Amino acid sequence: MNWNKQTSLAQQGTRDKEIWIREENGKTAKFPVEIYMGKKTNLLKLKKNIVESIQKQVSYYQDSRTKLYNQSEMENVNCCMVCGTDSNDTSDATTIYGANYVQCNHCSHVYVIKRPAPKAIHNFYLNDITYAATYTDRSAAESRLNSIAVPWANWMIDVFEQQHGRKPKSVLDVGSGAGHFVEACRRMGIQADGVELSESSREFSQEIWGIRLDGRDFTEVVEDYKGYDIVTFWGLLEHTPNPGQILKAAFDVVSASDAGMVISKLPRWNSLSSAIQKLVPETVIRHLDPMGHIMAFSDASAAELYTRNGFAPVAAWYYGMDIYETFMQIGHKTSSFDPLIQTGDLQVELQQAIDEVRFADGLTLVGVPIV
Predict the structure, then answer these.
(1) Does residue 51 lie within any of the structural domains?
(2) Total domains, the chain
(3) Which of 88, 98, 256, 310 is most buried per CB count within 10 Å?
(4) Residue 344 lies in a domain
(5) pLDDT digits over 217-250, tens only?
């Protein structure tokens, strides 16, 4: 199995068209993909007490992740969770806080080869202070909604209309967190619901937005949502030991619509953030955090995960936090965070350049059911 791209050598700007090509056993499948690049966001405006927060997080991540990856109840990952290739057929990628990332030699997917047991992972996401919703400030919630969730929703509508010729009627957001995206969609007149396991996140959503999120396992409630136009995963699949099972459940939901679509925001291995973190693995607090992301995707492994679970890739959006990450790591190395906190506008433009050459640490991939 092999994935390739046909793309312009003279690409300029924030839009492009590519052909993604899958070849296996003499058979070829081609997928036209609309390419979007960049999402200009001044990250410093979304963060308070940046330096103090970073330093506290580094200490917490070093202690908590190292402890998690040195406990007695660990399990070996026997095969790639995208293509099923035996984990012996991998190459070492990097090690962070005792977590060994390897890269599948078949589909190029990157994953932690030995990890805490599923129960420990589940409890971590329900209780960890980084992932549990602790927001209480309505103005901060509005700021996050307008800076992050609204651009996601606008882009989703644009992509859906290009594919299906109408605005989406219904959206199910799986791994909803505190409900920002669900609220953004509802304000745009779309029926939107969310699934979220964290009780504290659901409480926040109810308190701030008046939205009651579903606390059940998504794979067990497919029948309740069959026929929704879109299922979204804004940063979920990389947390789970079974991304294929979750995508299959999404297929069962959206294939019952006359215009189905799935959208997943995924961490990319081939990125500037991965490059800098491989050099300074002792100060990682995002991206290759081995509890935040127990896997990272290449474009090939993301496309392979989609096609194996019934979806044709049709659009890809590249944007990330690579410049913020690089300046943050320079701050750790030099004991001076001035370059980070004094260059907000510069970071925005530099990140745009990184996004446009597709070296960003984030990929949002859109798929439609294969018929």
Answers:
(1) yes
(2) 1
(3) 310
(4) yes
(5) 999 999 999 999 999 999 999 989 899 999 999 9
